[in-house]
Write a structure and sequence with these properties.
The protein is 4% helix and 54% strand. The termini are far apart. A hairpin with a 5-residue loop joins strand 20 and strand 21. It is globular, with a radius of gyration of 23 Å. With 313 residues, it is mainly β. The chain folds into 3 domains: 77 residues, no CATH class; 94 residues; 112 residues, no CATH class.
Length: 313
């Protein structure tokens, strides 16, 4: 039997430079039961397309794992590991030196992660968590953990992270009691002196079939678009298709402005189909929309969205 057995290519595992694979490691099994059945540990294989070299990261305590998110250059990965005790661990992996660090709260309080992401500059790693163990029926108080990937410094607090300001100069957090602005990278409270830009005072939310702007405290919501059939976020843009509209709306929430791309010609040429079977995917750094009908007829539409946005708004 081979020591490593390749299981699959990870869903979040392809970039311009990297391809990630999942392996079972029989050389270091988690356990072997009485009947001789082997429960292998897990290995991540990281293949660099340019150098054609592969790095392996052994997760010797992992029953299973998923890659939660990654920076665009795959310099940093975040992995959710499921242990034999069915507990989740959130690991930050620097792929250059295969350095691994668990992202958890300092102290005696148990937390489970509800979502992990990077800031826009990829410098800061955010782990949004709840108090208590994952299997608990009652979710505890929300908290956040912020890690500076350059220095390794960790911040944490109650509530949730609302947004980062331009160039990750500060982070806006809020809980039931107040809204706080922390300057970065030191984490100093600058709430009284920092002036937020208009778009930093809101978040963009999709609920049911409508989009709305929501205040930081969540107490007020302002409608933007309704009758949304499907949508996709890309950096500062929200792309939506309203049912029966024959147009893709490109909304920039920072500028609070939008333009529309008429796709009626494409849909007409697609022939007889039901509108609910049409969708699109934004690709190529947000510059192209890949249109798809019934998963059979495919055609590309190539507007430069940045140029179109500047020209038409």
């Amino acid at each position: 039997m081979l020591a490593f057995e390749c299981i699959d290519i990870l869903e979040l595992g392809m970039s311009d430079q990297w391809c990630l694979f999942r392996f079972h490691n029989y050389q270091y099994p988690l356990k072997i039961n009485e009947s001789g059945e082997i429960f292998p540990s897990s290995v991540i294989g990281m293949y660099n397309i340019t150098t054609q070299k592969t790095k392996y990261l052994n997760l010797l305590n992992a029953l299973d794992f998923t890659v939660e998110t990654a920076t665009g250059d795959y310099a940093d990965l975040v992995i959710r590991v499921v242990t034999e005790e069915q507990e989740d661990q959130i690991l930050w992996v620097n792929t250059d030196g295969l350095k691994v660090r668990e992202i958890c709260e300092q102290g005696d309080v148990a937390y489970h992660s509800s979502g992990v992401s990077f800031s826009l500059t990829n410098r800061y790693l955010i782990n949004q968590v709840y108090e208590g163990k994952k299997e608990s029926s009652d979710e505890g108080e929300q908290a956040w953990i912020l890690v500076d990937t350059q220095t390794g410094k960790q911040f944490s607090g109650k509530g949730e992270i609302h947004c980062f300001t331009a160039n990750d100069a500060a982070v806006v957090v809020h809980n039931k009691e107040k809204i706080t602005v922390l300057s970065l990278p030191k984490g100093t409270d600058v709430t009284e002196t920092y002036e937020l830009k208009p778009h930093e005072k809101f978040s963009l939310r999709i609920r049911e079939n409508r989009a709305e702007l929501v205040t930081i405290d969540g107490k007020h919501a302002y409608p933007l678009f309704d009758n949304i059939q499907f949508y996709q976020f890309w950096n500062d843009y929200l792309y939506i298709y309203q049912k029966g509209s024959y147009k893709i709306i490109c909304y920039c929430w920072k500028e609070h402005a939008y333009f529309q791309i008429d796709i009626s010609e494409f849909l007409t040429n697609a022939g007889d189909f039901k509108a609910e079977h049409f969708d699109f995917t934004i690709v190529n750094g947000g510059k192209n929309a890949f249109l798809r009908v019934l998963y059979e007829i495919e055609e590309s539409l190539y507007p430069d969205l940045n140029t179109r946005f500047n020209d038409e708004t």
